[in-house]
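Section: Multi-chain targets

For targets with more than one molecule, the full set of components is provided together so that the structure can be written out for the assembly as a whole rather than chain by chain. Components appear in the order listed by the source. The example entry contains two components.
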Amino acid sequence: QVQVVESGGGVVQPGRSLRLSCAASGFTFRTSGMHWVRQAPGQVLEWVALISYDGSSKYYAESVKGRFTISRDNSKNTLYLQMNSLRPDDTAIYYCASHHGSDYGTAFDNWGQGTMVTVSS
Amino acid sequence: DIQMTQSPSSLSASIGDRVTITCRASQTISSYLNWYQQKPGKAPKLLIFAASNLQTGVPSRFSGSGSGTDFTLTISSLQPDDFATYYCQQSYGTLTFGPGTKVDI
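Its structure, encoded as tokens over all components, is:
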């Protein structure tokens, strides 16, 4: 049974940092690319970052490039998102999801329940 | 970035209805198009990948079609569990989602 659980969200002041974690089980984490996707309240889903199965390749949305860092620890089946220089427009529910690849690109599978990040003074 | 639009933004339907949702890309994306279902307070769920492929475990009443710029998600006979918001997502360029279509009673 697949289980994906995000944690680490909370309320943080603008300019501060936060680290999110995502613990996965029930699928082969160590061979799966992993994504972070966020959803601001009442807004559209936004892809944030992708890391390859072994951590050697990382990709970011322009909106977070240079501020956020995605990483993983395959020995712990855990994905991370280090978020620095947070801004109010980073306020969102942050989901992790596994990479679903096909002949026609990338989809998001095995989602967690999300963790809420609120950036406010 | 490739922009995605969906129509309608919301619709009201009844159990047993055939429901069709349309997604349009701002440029051609071949079949690089996926569909998700999201219920309030829950994470999205992958329904269809590569425009027309049913994800494992998804009921066969869901189907997807289209290529290029215009795509369709069809629910052949709406069930109580299907009332939700549906999103399309393209992966031809930087990954982007459509604005969603809310299906309610």
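Chain B has a mean pLDDT of 96.
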